[in-house]
Amino acid sequence: MRTISERGVVSLACLAIAGCAASSMTPMTAPPAVQSRASLPSLAGSYHIVSRGETVWRIARSYGISPEALLSANRLSHAIPLAVGQRLFIPLPQESRQFLWPVRGRVKNAGAPYGIEIAAPPGTLVRASRSGRVAVAARDLSGWGKTVIVDHWDGSLSVYARLEQLLVAPGSTLRQGVPLGSVGVQPIYFEVRYGSKPRHTVSLLPVE
């Protein structure tokens, strides 16, 4: 698989750290609307809308938390089944310096030397693999579509390309696990870099 740099895009390290811009990129003009602070739980996290066939265990696993943590955050009991359309609060797991999977799905090229493609149902949220600052949130990054690049302050960058929707703006600070975009009909492309050098991304992620 070609890496993003091999497609002729300006160095991602330059984009993320030095802040230079490519003519092909159009940054978001405004961040997405956020809920009022009063309507949010006191814990850090996000929300999930229950789909048909989903269970507490399956939802908790997809977000990297325990079923007990999910039940406790929503004051639910194992004895009460989930309802389709139910809105669940997802508390963020304890932060880690390890890169986490940005989305749960089918990895199409686990043996690739650099980045990977992950297929998931359209609309599935894509999350920050590690905490950091949004260096790039581009609507069209030279053929890679909607792309987010997060600078992790230690020389490493994570790249999320072919997103259906952008949920963050340049300059935003993200905690690990916070949604930054969503999956479309195509698999997303995920890559980890140190400076301008792409890394073997799968080897940096937890074993599934």
Describe the structure.
By secondary structure, this protein is mainly β. The chain has 2 domains: 5-27 and 96-204, Glucose Permease (Domain IIA); 45-91, LysM domain (Membrane-bound Lytic Murein Transglycosylase D, Chain A). Helix content is 10%, strand content 28%. It is built from 3 helices and 12 strands; from the N terminus they run H-E-H-H-E-E-E-E-E-E-E-E-E-E-E. The chain has helices at 12-18, 56-62, 67-73, and strands at residues 45-49, 87-91, 106-107, 116-119, 125-127, 132-138, 146-151, 156-166, 173-174, 179-183, 188-194, 197-198. The strands form 2 sheets. Strands 3, 4, 5, 6, 7, 8, 9, 10, 11 and 12 form a 10-stranded antiparallel β-sheet that branches. A two-stranded antiparallel ribbon has the order 1-2. A hairpin with a 2-residue loop joins strand 11 and strand 12 (197-198). The longest helix is centred in the first third of the chain and has 7 residues, at 12-18. The protein is globular and about 50 Å long. The relative contact order is 0.21.
Defining key terms:
single chain; 208 residues; mainly beta; Membrane-bound Lytic Murein Transglycosylase D, Chain A; 10-stranded antiparallel sheet; 3 helices; 10% helix
Short recap of the structure:
The protein is built from three helices and twelve strands; from the N terminus they run αβααβββββββββββ.
How are the secondary structure elements laid out?
Blueprint (H helix, E strand, L loop, with lengths): L11 H7 L26 E5 L6 H7 L4 H7 L13 E5 L14 E2 L8 E4 L5 E3 L4 E7 L7 E6 L4 E11 L6 E2 L4 E5 L4 E7 L2 E2 L10
Antiparallel strand pairs: 1-2, 3-4, 4-11, 5-10, 6-7, 6-9, 7-8, 8-10, 8-11, 11-12
Helix pairs in contact: 2-3
